[in-house]
Design brief:
two-stranded antiparallel ribbon; 6 strands; globular
Length: 596
């Protein structure tokens, strides 16, 4: 009887192999066709070992679908894809365009406008190169996962008898996932495209960094995300507290936990919400820039340029345009592994970066048109000339115009704001409220922009933190292997990934909340310094090593849709030099400030 069952199962396995052989065609040149799977009711294929990723025609659609239904599905699929590109554009802006733009003009007190533009454009080109190389890394990690999944899928389809589930039904049939032959069912694992793990920051470090470096990369990522979120928690609470006229410590729990719970449990609505809020805050910033330009035309403030101080806006410029690589894996997870979609994704990110660069330049230009660069109140004096009748000599006395910063309009300057640690909007709004009272509503616009900007930035960076952290957690726990091999003990059956993953994310956001509630006023500047240092370290040194390792023999056979052009590849040395210089420059300046 057992021999009879073995013969039947062997025949079933052979029949399955013949069906799959007929269903999986090879390419014209004999290239392998990757795993087949169902996605939205349609059959997809991924070919490996061949450059067929030229367009969306790499997706094979089943012919048994009615033509009207197929057209309707195709239309909604195209619309959904374009919506994803739009969301990528706005998420990029939300990540880059934070409150840092408001503090950028104060670094121009000595340098002026033209030195800033030169430095900023160089930083913009470096960020473009960084996005280009990082898109290549995402594709190589994705291709590696496809190859890995293909190998695992082949092994699972050819299951030996000893791996068949022992929980047979009472009539002698075998409980299985798919397939039926002669009244009996048999188990086989049909691979699906959805099972392929998408790249995340932890995966990139694991694949393309050596031992020790990958652990350091994970630590730097975690610290960077946590420090940035703590800064946003403090800044956002203060912004809302000013509007509500309450102590900001009472706002921190509401601000942090409402946004954190939304990130963990409502991720599917976060990205559309980010897009809407980013559009709103972008509109507010544009309106503020237009009004500031109008007032600046009436003020006609003279802008002084000095290239000797070009280094002052350099570090702030790297931070003002940096950080996008932290959210790129999150956005990349929503597109398919085809050339047209990857190219559109990269162009959407570059368009967002370009928009932020233009807005930063226009904002700084408009502020320089109104707010004086340096303070000159202490040297502005009134000369009184008197005569002594005895000696017929003249007496010259000097008196300051005013000792009050409020009465002295030129005391409101970018230099003063830099020394006090203020953002550029403080002297800007004071000058507008004093000299141009009909534009006092600009202060309301600026306050609204700050609240929206901090909220959107917290949602964006919090989502990126969760995406990266879950990538690390999944790699440590190996949920799929535990579930497939039924290795979880009885007492841990309730602790499934659906329970553990959100619980661990909430614990991570709890750390952000706890540090923010400690009210580290003297620690805020240090947080900003460390965040900028880690950001440049991540963008320069680690990406350089990743790019080098991704071209090693281990990954040399991977075929990706949109590889880096051979002529551009040497530019990764330029990235290393630029960001390493930024790191060293930051460390040196920090040491000078501490020692003096």
């Amino acid at each position: 009887m057992e021999d009879e069952e073995e013969i039947i199962l062997t025949e079933a396995a052979e029949e399955l192999a013949r069906q799959q052989s007929a269903a999986e065609p090879t390419g014209d040149d004999g290239s392998d066709v990757g795993p087949l799977g169902l996605n939205n009711g349609q059959l997809h294929e991924i070919r490996l070992g061949d450059d067929i990723f030229d367009d969306d025609e790499a997706m094979v659609v089943r012919t048994d679908v009615p033509e009207s239904e197929e057209n309707r599905t195709s239309f909604w699929q195209i619309l959904k894809t374009h919506v994803i590109y739009i969301q990528c554009y706005f998420v990029t802006i939300a990540c880059i365009l934070g409150t840092g733009i408001l503090g950028l003009p104060v670094t121009l007190a000595q340098a002026g406008f033209y030195p800033f533009v030169v430095s900023f454009l160089i930083g913009f080109v470096m960020q473009v190169l960084l996005i280009y190389f990082f898109t290549d890394l995402l594709q190589r990690a994705h291709a590696y996962q496809i190859e890995k999944h293909k190998a695992v899928s082949v092994e699972e389809v050819q299951l030996p008898l000893r791996e068949i589930n022992d929980n047979d039904s009472e009539d002698g049939s075998i409980d299985t996932a798919n397939g039926e032959t002669g009244g009996r069912t048999y188990r086989h694992a049909m691979p699906t495209i959805e099972d392929i793990q998408r790249p995340n920051l932890h995966m990139l470090g694991t694949l393309f960094l050596g031992p020790g470096w990958r652990q350091l990369f994970d630590i730097i990522l975690l610290l960077q995300f946590v420090f940035i979120l703590i800064s946003y928690a403090l800044a956002g609470s203060e912004a809302y507290a000013q509007v509500l006229n309450v102590e900001y410590l009472y706002i921190i729990p509401v601000f942090v936990w409402i946004l954190s719970i939304s990130i963990v449990f409502a991720q599917h609505v976060i990205q559309p919400l980010i897009s809407i809020l980013t559009l709103a805050k972008g509109g507010i910033l544009v309106a503020t820039v237009v009004v500031t330009f109008g007032v600046g035309a009436a003020v006609a403030n003279e802008i002084k340029n000095n290239f000797q101080y070009m280094g002052q806006p350099f570090l702030m410029g790297t931070v003002a345009l940096g950080g996008i690589m932290n959210v790129m894996p999150l956005m990349y997870s929503r597109i398919d592994f085809v050339k047209t979609q990857i190219r559109a994704f990269m162009l959407a990110v570059l368009a967002g970066l370009t928009t932020c660069m233009i807005l930063n330049v226009l904002w700084c230009w408009s502020v320089l048109g109104i707010v004086p660069q340096t303070s000159t109140c202490d040297v502005v004096q009134v000369v009184e000339v008197g005569f002594e009748s005895v000696n017929n000599t003249s007496i010259v006395t000097y008196k300051p115009v005013s000792n009050s910063p409020v009465d002295c309009s030129q005391e409101l300057s970018l230099e003063r704001s830099e020394k006090r640690g203020e953002i550029a909007t403080i002297p800007l709004t004071e000058i507008i409220n004093t000299d141009y009272p009909k534009y006092t509503w600009v202060a309301v616009l600026i306050q609204t922009f700050i609240m929206l900007s901090v909220s959107v930035s917290f949602l964006t960076m919090g989502s990126a933190l969760m995406h990266s952290f879950l990538g690390w957690l999944d790699a440590q726990m190996l949920w799929e292997r535990l579930g497939r091999q039924n290795l979880l003990p009885l007492e841990l059956k309730c602790c499934t990934p659906k329970v553990w993953r959100p619980a661990m994310c909430l614990l991570l956001f709890g750390i952000v909340f706890a540090v923010a509630m400690l009210d580290p006023k003297g620690f805020v500047v240090l947080l900003d310094k460390i965040s900028s240092l880690l950001l440049n370290l991540e963008g320069g040194v680690f990406v350089y090593f990743m790019v080098r390792k991704s071209r090693s023999q281990t990954y040399s056979n991977l075929k990706i849709p949109l590889p880096v052009i051979r002529l551009v590849y040497p530019a990764h040395f330029v990235l290393l030099f630029y960001f390493t210089f930024a790191v060293v420059y930051d460390v040196v300046l920090t040491l000078i400030v501490i020692l003096t």
